[in-house]
């Protein structure tokens, strides 16, 4: 490959290094996001199709494309401390439409896991969801209004989940306890 000479050694070094050329980048963060998400985040070419497909984008400052860029550049602190990280609804529209077959949703999930693991602020409603899943097996448990609708539709009052088979709840609790999620959620919420 012929390398261009711009008369600026620092710039030439940056151009040779296609991924990392900002001072606060962390290569390990990029690698960790890639490993946890299991997707080829480094292949993002910033076309913006993901943001254009995102139901959160028109209603908030959240831009999935920005998080993809942060993943590539290793901008750990910018990604993990940004409250917008928690505005993804995990609808997977972006993943369906990415022309490079990347899964941006899974990049966000990886970043959220890392944010929790490294003690960054997690919104209260996410912590409360952990508590609900621990207790009922559901992030959104059934309620009497839903049961009445289900009955009208000829369905059993409860779906065939842990609502019908509560004997599976201890198994769910075991998984959550393995990662210390419930204890941490309880601790953070009680401190608040
Ligand atoms: S749609 Fe895919 S390639 Fe385009 S910006 Fe989003 S993640 Fe990157
Ligand atoms: S999965 Fe998240 S980032 Fe992707 S389109 Fe849905 S809300 Fe937006």
Layout of helices and strands, plus pairs?
Blueprint: H1 9-16, H2 27-37, H3 49-53, H4 64-73, H5 76-80, H6 93-97, H7 104-117, H8 124-136, H9 144-152, H10 169-178, H11 181-191
Helix pairs in contact: 2-4, 2-7, 4-7, 8-10, 8-11
This protein binds iron/sulfur cluster (2 copies).
One iron/sulfur cluster binds at residues 53-56, 64, 88-94, 104-105, 108.
Give your account of this protein's structure.
The chain has 192 residues and is mostly helical. It folds into two domains: 9-117, Alpha-helical ferredoxin (Fumarate Reductase Iron-sulfur Protein, Chain B, domain 2, Orthogonal Bundle), CATH 1.10.1060.10; 124-191, no CATH class. It contains eleven helices and no strands. Helix 2 packs across helix 4, helix 2 (27-37) crosses helix 7 (104-117) and helix 4 crosses helix 7 (104-117). The relative contact order is 0.10. Bound molecules: iron/sulfur cluster (2 copies). The site of one iron/sulfur cluster has 14 residues, from helix 3 and helix 4.
Task: Give a summary of the structure in a few sentences.
The protein has helices at 9-16, 27-37, 49-53, 64-73, 76-80, 93-97, 104-117, 124-136, 144-152, 169-178, 181-191.
User: What's the total helix number?
Assistant: 11
Q: Could you tell me the mean pLDDT?
A: 91
Strand content: under 5%
Q: Which parts are unreliable, with pLDDT below 50 for 5 consecutive residues or more?
A: none
How many whole angstroms does the radius of gyration measure? 21 Å
CATH superfamily of the largest domain: Alpha-helical ferredoxin
Shape descriptor: elongated
Present as ligands are:
iron/sulfur cluster
Largest sheet: none
Helix content: 40-55%
First-residue to last-residue Cα separation: 57 Å
């Amino acid at each position: 490959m012929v390398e261009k000479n711009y008369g600026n050694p620092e710039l030439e070094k940056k151009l040779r290094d296609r991924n990392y050329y900002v001072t606060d980048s962390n290569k390990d963060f990029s690698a960790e996001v890639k490993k946890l998400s299991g997707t080829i985040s480094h292949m993002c070419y910033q076309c913006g199709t993901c943001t254009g497909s995102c139901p959160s984008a028109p209603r908030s400052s959240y831009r999935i494309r920005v998080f993809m860029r942060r993943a590539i550049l290793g901008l750990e602190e910018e990604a993990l401390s940004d409250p917008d990280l928690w505005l993804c609804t995990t609808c997977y529209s972006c993943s369906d439409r990415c022309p490079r077959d990347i899964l941006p949703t899974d990049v966000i999930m990886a970043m959220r896991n890392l944010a929790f693991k490294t003690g960054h602020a997690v919104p209260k409603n996410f912590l409360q969801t952990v508590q609900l899943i621990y207790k009922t097996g559901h992030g959104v448990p059934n309620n009497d209004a839903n049961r009445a609708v289900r009955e009208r539709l000829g369905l059993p009052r409860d779906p065939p989940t842990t609502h019908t088979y509560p004997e599976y709840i201890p198994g769910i609790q075991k998984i959550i306890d393995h990662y210390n999620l419930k204890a941490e959620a309880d601790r953070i919420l009680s401190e608040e």
